[in-house]
TrEMBL record:
<protein>
    <submittedName>
        <fullName>MFS family permease</fullName>
    </submittedName>
</protein>
<feature type="transmembrane region" description="Helical">
    <location>
        <begin position="214"/>
        <end position="238"/>
    </location>
</feature>
<keyword id="KW-0472">Membrane</keyword>
<dbReference type="InterPro" id="IPR036259">
    <property type="entry name" value="MFS_trans_sf"/>
</dbReference>
<keyword id="KW-0812">Transmembrane</keyword>
<feature type="transmembrane region" description="Helical">
    <location>
        <begin position="244"/>
        <end position="265"/>
    </location>
</feature>
<dbReference type="Pfam" id="PF07690">
    <property type="entry name" value="MFS_1"/>
</dbReference>
<dbReference type="InterPro" id="IPR011701">
    <property type="entry name" value="MFS"/>
</dbReference>
<feature type="transmembrane region" description="Helical">
    <location>
        <begin position="272"/>
        <end position="288"/>
    </location>
</feature>
<feature type="transmembrane region" description="Helical">
    <location>
        <begin position="360"/>
        <end position="380"/>
    </location>
</feature>
<feature type="transmembrane region" description="Helical">
    <location>
        <begin position="99"/>
        <end position="116"/>
    </location>
</feature>
<keyword id="KW-1133">Transmembrane helix</keyword>
<feature type="transmembrane region" description="Helical">
    <location>
        <begin position="46"/>
        <end position="68"/>
    </location>
</feature>
<feature type="transmembrane region" description="Helical">
    <location>
        <begin position="166"/>
        <end position="185"/>
    </location>
</feature>
Amino acid sequence: MIKFRQVLAVPGMTPLLGISLLARTAITADAMVLTMYVVVALDMSYAAAGAVVAALTAGVALGGPLLGRMIDRRGLRTVLLATVVPQLVFWLTVPALPYVILLGASFAAGLLMVPVQSVTRQAIAAMTTAGQRRAAFALDSVAGELSYMVGPAVVILCAAKVSPGVVAWGVGAAIVVGGAGIALLDPPLRAEDEADGEAAGRPRRREWLGARMVAVLVMGFGVAMLLSGVDLAIVATLQEAGQVSWAAVVVAVFGVTSVVGGLVYGALPRPMPTWLLLGLLGLVTIPAGLAHDWPWLCVAVIGAGLLTAPTLSTVSDAVSRLTPAGVRGEATGLQSSAASAGFALGSPVVGMAIDVSTPTGGFAAAGLAGLLAALTGYLLSRRSPAAVPSPITWVDRPCPSIRRCIND
């Protein structure tokens, strides 16, 4: 735990992670809020709710790199102001919007979603040393798992007590408070030695978006697709067994083991390649389909849970190491877009596998998606020469070993 204490002792790191957790918990719950509003308040179908969520997700995927590029050029506070205000307007007006307008407004809200995750990752890369970064990204992944465990559950619980419109106001308020809080903190997005390098100019995209970066983005897409598919396969398995009410318990076990895995991985002395972690995650996901009731399913998802946060943290770490400081916002935006696309595609692909086979096929499809992404990432990273660290990013920044600097 010494590494985690060192990370949390970095000035500004603890409040950043705390505010980020609040905002991310609300953001992970936004899809559930919109679903509840369309189904309950508007009395429409789940298909209609899915269309609204899809519009929101598409907006997030498209907006990530655009907002990241704006951060690189205009600065953090400018972008936060440009996103917090639209979020305030959107969530305040959700209960008054008819369905057709809500559909378009959801896309716009996604396009201008407060970039909490990408900003947090940029700040972590800037505020930590090379030796601290893996533990810091592990904490970030743990926070992400906690947000996925808490956010949707709180929305469902609150929706049972108050109207979906009021819940929408609450989620919107948390997103706005989180964005405003980060703006007040104004964490550095460049290390001290990187600030002077900005005068060297913005590197061209082809200089940093090479095969190795594409490999990392493909693996980020793959792990998101796998996780989205696993959630659906869990529900399908328990529905077939007549135990769907236990789905929350299984998901909670998955989340808790992911938190444990992230903490253990962050404390390890050596990192592991992203492709290896993702490949192992895919392998242990496939046999989870052999479980046919909730107690065994809880046991079956432990292996996947232990590998989830470590895999997510290595993706973030790799993006930060392969990206020059001048384009780090755009790169982390691309990472968020890849994850959004993976989450959006995972459910329909795994759903098709379940429809043509059984819930066991759903776990197999999710695991194979992870394995395919891991293999693609491995081949892409090995086909390209080792990236030469950019002087903008790495001047006077210590690196414990050559293997640590170039290995995914």
